[in-house]
Known about the structure:
This protein is an alpha+beta fold. The protein is built from 12 helices and 8 strands.
Amino acid sequence: MQKISDQGRLRPWMGIILFGVLMAFMFFAAYPLQTNFGIPGLVLTELGFLALAIGYCLIRKVKLKEVFPVKKIKLRELFGCILIAIGAYPVSMLMIILTAVIFPDSIKEAGELSSFLYGNLNYPLALLIVALLPAICEEAIHRGAILSNFRSIKHDWIIVLIMGILFGINHLSVLRFLMTMSLGMFLSYVVVKKNNLLLSMLMHFMTNAISVSLGFLTGADATMSAAVDYTSVLGVYLILGFMSPVVIILGVMLVNPEGHKKIRFLYAGILAAAMLISGCAINAFASSKNMLLNTTFSYKVTEEEKDCSMIDFDVEEDRNATVVVMLTNAESDYSIRIDGDKGSNIINSEIPYGPVRMITYNVGLQADHYTVTVVPSEEAIGEQPNVQITIQ
């Protein structure tokens, strides 16, 4: 990695000390601020990160423009970073689900975080406070001030790994550690290779903006529940994200073409195949264990037969279940209903738009006979959607 002209004033051990100061700030300032003041406390926390980053540079007397390198973004690099961010998001979600499988008690963090953010902010403010502000302030302290201390390390992969681990620890969350660690590695890689903080800020904003958008689309109903078997959910996300390695390597090739090796696509392909096979195997195992419904169907929407309500299933005793609905080959508005014969309405929700139109719900089911109905809008007449419904 490119060294700064004042590298003699910065050493790896200083980066560890700075990170220690950052963690002390988290425990003794940020946590009380967020506990007592909520969202304003979160804003002050992010601004505190920025102040720490700038203050450290002033104390060490190093050039701000080198610690926080900002350059014009090339079009190739822009598309590369977008691809990496798109590929990294499914990986981040996989890390969340994997952690939920290994540490089930950590799941309660998801509900607390969702309530803290989406219960107190509207969408534009959430984009500003949860996506844009961290993209600037967290990048300044991590990929700026802290990373600059590790520029003397010869092997770039060591810098990337260290920065990923520190970023994961900084979030003080068991549930999100692997997720933020992997994200931190992707962000650090871009800065290590291109020495441009704007690129990591862009990627950071994109990933946070995707999370915020999905959070508002799915709402509180999508909050993770400790009653769900996340092993089966892991299988679904492995299948959904199996192309992520290829997308990431394509982005890496665009960001750093001079260091690209074609064999990486072979490795990415092998990993993608392994993810797909593993996801199918996990789903097959889960299906044999506790599946209530697993069906894929297609039908044509007509005036006479607009709704498709031919799918039903029985629940013999009260239980919790995960409902996953995927919709493809559909451009109009669609919603999904699940109703019990005893009059209960379990789900009545629109299926959101996106690269993959999918909703996931954790529900409590009483012993009953249930009917699943796909409800298209008037504009959907003439379409032939493909629907996959899994309830387990």
